[in-house]
DNA sequence: AGAGTGATTAACT
DNA sequence: GTTAATCACTCTA
């Protein structure tokens, strides 16, 4: 039994509210449905790591749109990464979808990811995009529109907030303003699909520091 | 640990 | 119009 579809009202909230709410939510495209287990918030105005930090460009234009748009970018010469835009129009916020679990369309997913173990199908943002068949052609799409090829739904079964985990993003701490007040990264504790390279526990100070 | 890859962007002419 | 630096990753070792 699928959850209710997420509309402008749910996705138009502040990115730091929407990000944890997307844990356990599903995204469906081209025959595959993924349940999200790890996301990361980007807020252009206060986030030097955001593509939108230094203003609007043709590529980042969707980030400045209304909550519910898709922002898909290409990086490292071969990878697409999927973001869900949040907030009000003009605020340049988005949630990067980092990891998830395929819950429907296993056959299609297996064709898109030959030779990859199911657990790794969406373990990482570019893998998630590949498995879902999402690329730059979908950037700017309004997922809340009727007939959208990409559909976001609330968790089919409620997620216990006790399973939420969050942490500051590496390398962007201490920029002042909201940047050091909000967690950037959210994941679900105990999920095998969460990207392995993020510490699940507070990390000891750097060796040698 | 390193290579690979190409879109994007700002800084040039 | 051209160029060079950048990039939020994955894969093969």
From TrEMBL:
Enzyme Commission number(s) of this protein: 3.2.2.-
Top-level EC class as recorded in UniProt: hydrolase
Keywords: DNA damage, DNA repair, Hydrolase
Matching Pfam families: Pur_DNA_glyco
Stored Gene3D superfamilies: Methylpurine-DNA glycosylase (MPG) (3.10.300.10)
Molecular-function annotations in GO: alkylbase DNA N-glycosylase activity; DNA binding
Keyword Transport attributed: no
Signal peptide: none
GO biological process, one term: base-excision repair
Matches recorded under PANTHER family: DNA-3-METHYLADENINE GLYCOSYLASE
UniProt similarity note: Belongs to the DNA glycosylase MPG family.
Protein name (Swiss-Prot/TrEMBL): Putative 3-methyladenine DNA glycosylase
Source species of the chain: Lapillicoccus jejuensis
